[in-house]
Design a protein that fits this description.
The complex is a heterodimer. Chain A contains twelve helices and two strands; from the N terminus they run H-E-E-H-H-H-H-H-H-H-H-H-H-H. By secondary structure, chain A is an all-alpha fold. Chain A has a two-stranded antiparallel sheet. In chain A, a hairpin with a 7-residue loop joins strand 1 and strand 2. In chain A, helix 9 packs antiparallel against helix 12. Chain A starts with 9 loop residues before the first helix and ends in a 7-residue tail after the last helix. In chain B, a hairpin with a 2-residue loop joins strand 4 and strand 5. The two termini of chain B are 44 Å apart. The chains are: A mainly alpha, B alpha+beta. At the A-B interface, helix 8 and helix 9 of A face strand 6 and helix 2 of B.
Chain lengths: 297, 348
């Protein structure tokens, strides 16, 4: 119907693409390509920081053998955190998009405002909140919830801080705005009128959610999950501050490998493996989302 | 017999002011009923109160005698054709139409049969697999109609159903709508600001202003014998002449004015006026005349009668038969709340 979608020539298209393309090539693709030979190299001496390309494919098998379980664990923790964040974000985004009215910009702003402070500061805040003599644990004790939560595995030895649930919670907290923002934009385009149409056609809230809201929110969902999952998998600060000694994730291992052990070829190999895994997840996610990316009224 | 829709003292206030200010109305079975009024008169709010999208502040909505005032839309046996159609963009035409029957949990065979019937009624079977964005505006409108019809509602609600169509298409869709309504014996409540549409389609209509109903009746009753100047002017061109007897005015429609060189015969009345403009409108000529005192007069004459003989600047007699003129009380429109848009053609 819109016959003049391409009203400009190919030169203009390239011109518009150029900044993004240059950024992507110079700062991402080239360094990443640099990682590939490095991941197949060997140090010149035992503690040397100089390398020789030897095509040493063993870097990969060693890394997979050594970090495979941690990699899986990181994906699991990140997956749990993203799922938890989604449980919080989806209803919130629905509320802002459908019921927000003129308060919509303010509500969206409130979701983002905590993230104007540095992530380190926010994590310090969390440690205070979750501390052994902190307010949250005090409240749980007062409500007599310590034992039930311990049984459920949400508390460990009467502690909140330095537990896996704390890491999952912290990661989920960080992921919420990355999910809420794209979801609000998408749901806002869905519009209240389609919800009214569904109710008019005798659909209750559950059917409306399943048949109308959910399928139409898929593009925003794919974008949000991509934006939240990727930084969550690689998070370094959160496991250090909220988790115990066994809660390090792949990001911490990578940091250790580069900054402490100085094993650059192996860290390059681990990075390539991690990137490949994430790329697969994202491609999968985007495909799921684009299927329903239809023009909305 | 119980009316299909009955509204009792329905009121709804918004932050901006009173939207619906005490409406009583009944729509009978098989009737095509229109709510006509300028934008902001509360007609769409009334429709939303009936459908259940908004709750009224007070008053009742009854469907076939049953009080549904506090039921959510999904529990009212009504279906709406929305002004923007509100089709589900991710579903095909077939799936859009099947949405209602599926939501009600009808068995699959029933759904397929009903959807096929509904698509046949609006003649959309060949497009069943298309998505809404692959359809023209007129086709989308028919999908919206089928999607509502398939549920066999006790009444069909139409919210400015033709407003989004181009004028050429509007006529044919009007005819289509009336045909379907007659064939299926549907009870229809339509909201519109287009008086021609309302006059052409409705069995009865209500003219609304500022949240109230000004008059209810058949199109002919309202056109020929409006209750007040507002209704008179909203339903078409109107000359409101001073009525010396009552202190009110006299409604003479432009087609009731005859233009001639000589004065009125016995029993007729007439007024000398100068022709200001003769506007060609196809089969008719619309003539604007200036009186010595008072607002300009409008006359409609057939082309055979007027062509060549009526020229601007000429002074003629505008003659009418007092028996066909309709007396009106003094204009009540001055009591309307300020800030409401005036209908097209009303004097400033």
């Amino acid at each position: 119907m819109s016959g003049s979608r391409r009203s400009w020539g190919p030169e203009v298209s390239w011109l518009l693409l150029a900044p993004g393309l240059a950024w992507l090539l110079g700062l991402f693709v080239l360094p990443l390509l640099g990682l590939l030979p490095l991941s197949l190299a060997e140090p010149l001496g035992r503690f040397s920081l100089r390398f020789r390309f030897t095509g040493r494919i063993d870097n990969y098998s060693e890394v997979l053998q050594h970090y495979g379980p941690l990699l899986l664990r990181s994906l699991l923790v990140a997956g749990l955190a993203t799922a938890l964040a989604l449980l919080i974000s989806y209803p919130l985004a629905c509320f802002i998009a459908f019921r927000g009215g003129r308060w919509r910009p303010l509500l969206t702003g409130l979701v983002v405002i905590p993230f104007f402070t540095a992530s380190l500061v926010r994590m310090i805040g969390w440690t205070t909140l979750l501390a052994d003599r902190g307010p949250l644990l005090g409240l749980l004790r007062g409500l007599g919830l310590v034992l039930p939560l311990e049984v459920l595995g949400l508390l460990q030895d009467g502690r909140l801080l330095n537990t896996t649930p704390a890491v999952v919670g912290g990661l989920a907290y960080n992921a919420v705005p990355f999910l809420v923002l794209p979801l609000v934009v998408t749901l806002q385009r869905v519009g209240v009128s389609l919800l009214e149409a569904a109710a008019d056609l005798q659909a209750g809230p559950w059917i409306t959610l399943r048949r109308v809201i959910w399928p139409l929110s898929k593009p925003g969902l794919a974008a949000g999950l991509t934006l939240s999952l990727v930084p969550t998998v690689g998070d370094v600060i959160n496991p250090q501050m909220l988790g115990g000694p066994n809660d390090r994730l792949i990001g911490n291992a990578l940091q250790n490998l580069v900054l402490v052990q100085r094993q650059l070829p192996r860290s390059a190999a681990l990075t390539v493996v991690l990137m490949a895994l994430l790329a697969l997840l994202v491609l999968f996610g985007l495909r799921g989302g684009s299927r329903d990316d239809l023009p909305l009224p | 017999m119980e009316p299909v829709i009955a509204l009792e003292s329905l009121r709804r206030r918004y932050a901006a002011g009173m939207a619906v200010d005490g409406i009583d109305l009944t729509v009978e079975r098989g009737e095509f009923f229109s709510l006509l009024g300028p934008s902001g008169c509360g007609k769409t709010t009334t429709l939303r109160l009936i459908a259940g999208f908004d709750p009224p502040d007070s008053g009742r909505v009854r469907l076939e005698g049953r009080d549904v005032t506090h039921l959510p839309p999904q529990r009212r046996p009504l279906n709406t054709v929305f002004q923007n159609y509100a089709l589900f963009p991710h579903l095909t035409v077939w799936e859009n139409v099947a949405f209602g029957p599926r939501a009600r949990g009808l068995p699959g065979a029933d759904i397929r049969r009903r959807v096929a019937e509904a698509l046949a009624i609006v003649e959309l079977e060949p497009l069943a697999r298309r998505r809404p964005h692959e359809l023209s505006g007129g086709q989308q409108q028919r999908v919206a109609l089928a999607r509502a019809l398939v549920n066999r509602p006790v009444a069909l609600l139409l919210d400015e159903p033709l407003a989004a169509l181009d004028p050429f298409l509007r006529r044919s869709v009007q005819g289509e709508l009336k045909r379907i309504q007659r064939e299926l014996g549907l009870t229809v409540l339509m909201v519109t600001h287009d008086q021609e549409e309302a006059l052409a389609l409705s069995d009865r209509l209500a003219v609304m202003r500022a949240g109230r109903i000004e008059q209810v009746g058949t199109p002919r009753q309202l056109y020929d014998a409006p209750a007040n100047p507002f209704v008179a002017e909203f339903l078409g061109r109107a000359n409101l002449l001073a009525d010396d007897g009552s202190g009110g005015s006299l409604l003479v429609r432009p087609e009731q004015l005859r233009l001639q060189a000589h004065g009125p015969a016995a029993g007729e009345r007439g007024q000398r006026a100068r022709i200001v403009d003769v506007s060609f409108q196809g089969s008719l000529l619309q003539v604007t005349l200036a009186q010595e005192a008072g607002p300009p007069l409008l006359a409609q004459v057939s082309r055979q009668d007027g062509e060549g003989s009526l020229r601007s600047g000429e002074v003629v007699w505008a003659v009418w038969d007092p028996a066909t003129a309709h007396p009106l009380p003094a204009n009540l429109s001055d009591s309307a709340p300020a800030g409401l848009p005036r209908p097209p053609g009303s004097p400033p």
